[in-house]
């Protein structure tokens, strides 16, 4: 799960990492809460916003409403923001790159840093990066190495790295990328931007997780806005096979959707919300083969979503795998039938339209 910048920064702050003072802006009316100079940042789930006009410094207060309008209207790599982050302007002396990430090949967490950060970091030569394993037992020596590498006193790097590391561990993160880490002209080290990804498989131990989670939307692909059958599946392979099976029966699939491993009510709800904006949907085919995903979680999500969305097209549901029995029981209590195979779902979907 990929967090939006303001969500990531909130977690950093909770772990004691310095972030700029800021507030969320939901509409232009809230411009009155701000005064220039202020940095306005589009809260879309993709990087490279600076180069695309998604990060603007507004100096004069009277220019703020127009800048807010511009940012809300600005499409960045296919995304428009639901909110903007308005932050105090930082006066930049130096910009660095610092990241913690899970390295699947070496099966450890790595501390990666570069002395120069900012929007051109991809251009940095690979061998200039600091790239070392980090864990509880090496935290102190990693702090020393990072301080030496970036050229700071230990006392400056200690709280930063301790905070980042604790944010990483306590939130079951797979990535925390701070770029830029800014040294201000007042000699403070502050996280200018943060990208953070959390491990979906750890969701069960984080009841507090309540994020926008727009990455799920990237797994939703519109195939034909005029299509008649919407699909919801888990795993890209099964999702593609489901789409193909719909087409093979002579029906028109409207979308591809892989709800991934951490399916929850929010993601199912959002899928339904998108599907009902398609004008000709006659049936929603749900095809879940649960491994990490649990059928009962999906069932709960379907029940909750069904209650919240009016005029939902008929659902044809096939579930298999982890916690299948519990799921069927939950759905039966709500009079929502399930079918044994995808084939039966497709047949039923087809029959109701003749
Ligand atoms: P990104 O382009 O999506 O990675 O967004 P960033 O938050 O990293 O912003 C892009 C660039 O804006 C940074 O690399 C800074 O060089 C520049 N910038 C200029 N002033 C500020 C400021 O006050 N705060 C922040 N965060 N960035 C600033
Ligand atoms: Mn950045």
Structure description:
Helices cover 31% and strands 25% of the residues. It is of the alpha+beta class and 354 residues long. It has 3 domains: 21-88, 2-Layer Sandwich (Dna Ligase, domain 1), CATH 3.30.1490.20; 92-205, 2-Layer Sandwich (D-amino Acid Aminotransferase, Chain A, domain 1); 212-349, 3-Layer(aba) Sandwich (Rossmann fold). Strands 5, 6, 7, 8, 9 and 10 form a 6-stranded antiparallel β-sheet that branches. It is globular, with a radius of gyration of 23 Å. The two termini are 41 Å apart. The model has no long low-confidence stretch (mean pLDDT 92). It binds guanosine-5'-diphosphate (GDP) and manganese (II) ion. Guanosine-5'-diphosphate binds next to strand 2, strand 3 and strand 8. Manganese (II) ion binds at residues 47, 179, 193.
Q: Would you tell me the overall average pLDDT? A: 92
The CATH topology label of the largest domain is Rossmann fold
Radius of gyration: 23 Å
CATH superfamily of the largest domain: Succinyl-CoA synthetase domains
Shape: globular
- First-last Cα distance: 41 Å
Q: What order do the helices and strands follow?
A: HEEEHEEEEHHEEEHEEHEHEHEHH
Small molecules bound in the structure, each named once: guanosine-5'-diphosphate, manganese (II) ion
CATH class of the largest domain: Alpha Beta
Approximately what portion of the residues adopt beta-strand conformation? 15-25%
| Structural class by sheet pairing and helices | alpha+beta
Examine the secondary-structure arrangement and name the CATH architecture of the largest domain: 3-Layer(aba) Sandwich
Q: What is the total number of structural domains? A: 3
Number of helices: 10
Report the sheet with the most strands, covering strand number, pairing sense and barrel closure.
6 strands, antiparallel
Q: Report the strand count.
A: 15
Q: What's the helical proportion of residues?
A: 25-40%
Low-confidence stretches: none
């Amino acid at each position: 799960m990929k967090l939006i910048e303001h969500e990531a920064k909130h977690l950093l702050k909770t772990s004691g990492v310095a972030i700029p003072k800021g507030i969320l802006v939901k509409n232009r009316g809230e411009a009155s809460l701000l005064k220039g100079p202020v940095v306005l940042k589009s809260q879309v789930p993709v990087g490279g916003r600076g180069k695309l006009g998604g990060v603007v410094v507004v100096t004069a207060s009277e220019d703020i409403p127009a800048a807010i309008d511009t940012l809300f209207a600005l499409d960045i790599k296919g995304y428009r923001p639901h909110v903007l982050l308005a932050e105090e302007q930082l006066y930049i002396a130096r910009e660095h790159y610092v990241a913690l990430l899970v390295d699947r090949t070496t099966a450890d967490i790595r501390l990666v840093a570069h002395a120069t950060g900012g929007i051109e970091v991809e251009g940095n030569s690979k061998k200039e990066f600091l790239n070392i394993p980090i864990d509880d037992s090496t935290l102190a020596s990693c702090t020393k190495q990072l301080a030496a590498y970036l050229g700071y006193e230990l006392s400056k790097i200690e709280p930063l790295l301790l905070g980042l590391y604790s944010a990483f561990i306590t939130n079951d993160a797979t990535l925390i990328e701070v770029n830029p880490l800014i040294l201000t002209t007042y000699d403070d080290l502050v996280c200018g931007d943060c990208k953070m990804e959390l491990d979906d498989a750890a969701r069960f131990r984080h009841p507090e997780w309540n994020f926008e989670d727009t990455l799920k939307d990237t797994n939703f692909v519109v195939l034909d806005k005029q299509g008649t059958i919407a699909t919801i599946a888990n795993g890209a392979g099964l999702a593609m096979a489901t789409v193909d099976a719909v087409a093979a029966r002579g029906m028109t699939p409207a979308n591809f959707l892989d709800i991934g491993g951490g399916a929850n009510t929010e993601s199912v709800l959002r899928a339904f919300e998108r599907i009902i904006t398609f004008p000709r949907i006659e049936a929603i085919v749900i095809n879940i083969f649960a491994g990490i995903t649990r059928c009962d979680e999906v069932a709960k999500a379907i029940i909750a979503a069904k209650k919240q969305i009016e005029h939902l097209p008929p659902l044809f549901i096939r579930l298999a795998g982890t916690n299948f029995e519990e799921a069927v029981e939950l759905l039966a209590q709500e009079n929502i039938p399930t079918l044994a195979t995808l084939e039966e779902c497709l047949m039923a979907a087809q029959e109701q339209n003749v």
